[in-house]
Design goal:
Layout lengths: L7 H22 L3 E4 L2 E4 H24 L4 H20 L3 H23 L4 H6 L7 H28 L2 H22 L1 H6 L12
Antiparallel strand pairs: 1-2
Length: about 200
């Protein structure tokens, strides 16, 4: 299915809006206890329950507008439903906190399998954003694989050793900032292996 053009601001709002809404709702309700059906639920669980349909609606709208969802987006949606649902069903916030760990382990393992086959599966996801030579894609994929494994470990350390509020800040801002800074730090690689170099008669 071909991709349809979409306003970048709207795309960002659909991707980041549910996460920021989760953050704001958590800060608002974090100290409250809700009694539903005779069972007490902390604010985190209630916010998680609300986040799931909001995220799915935003993802559905993005799919409708662009005509496309990446495998990464689809897998993320499934894991949010499964682990968010388990947290709500079992009234246990740990399942939702584990979700980023599993997402990054899954993505990291998938990229590692591609590397063992001599392929960059990252390329199929990101080639339209930054065309690189094959060697550049292989180097970037190795680095992204290590990034994903590192973030998985970091998420485990934070949710197991720190407060829920600290984890929410980390999930909302820390993970996004880490990925953003990682790609900023790869500017030298992008310049060295840009496909545009091939236009230079002296390039090999």
């Amino acid at each position: 299915m071909s991709h349809k053009p979409i306003n970048p601001g709207l795309k960002t709002a659909l991707e980041m809006g549910p996460i920021l809404a989760f953050f704001g709702a958590y800060l608002w309700l974090k100290d409250r206890i809700f009694v539903i059906g005779g069972t007490e639920y902390e604010g985190f669980i209630v916010v998680t329950a609300a986040f799931i349909p909001v995220f799915l609606i935003a993802t559905g709208v993005l799919w409708k507008l662009t005509g496309h969802l990446s495998r990464m987006q689809a897998v993320t949606a499934v894991l949010i439903v499964v682990f968010g649902g388990l947290s709500v069903w079992l009234n246990d916030e740990r399942f939702f906190k584990m979700k980023p760990t599993l997402i990054y382990l899954l993505f990291g393992t998938t990229l590692a399998i591609g590397l063992m086959r001599g392929e960059s599966w990252l390329r199929s996801v990101m080639e339209g954003l930054m065309p690189l030579k094959h060697q550049g894609w292989m180097i970037l994929t190795r680095r992204v694989t290590m990034l994903f494994f590192g973030l998985a470990v970091l998420n485990e350390v934070i949710w197991r050793t720190m407060s829920t509020e600290t984890w929410v800040y980390f999930k909302t801002f820390g993970l996004t900032a880490a990925i953003f800074l990682f790609f900023i730090s790869q500017s030298g690689l992008f310049k060295a292996y840009s496909i545009e170099d091939d236009k230079d008669p002296g390039a090999q």
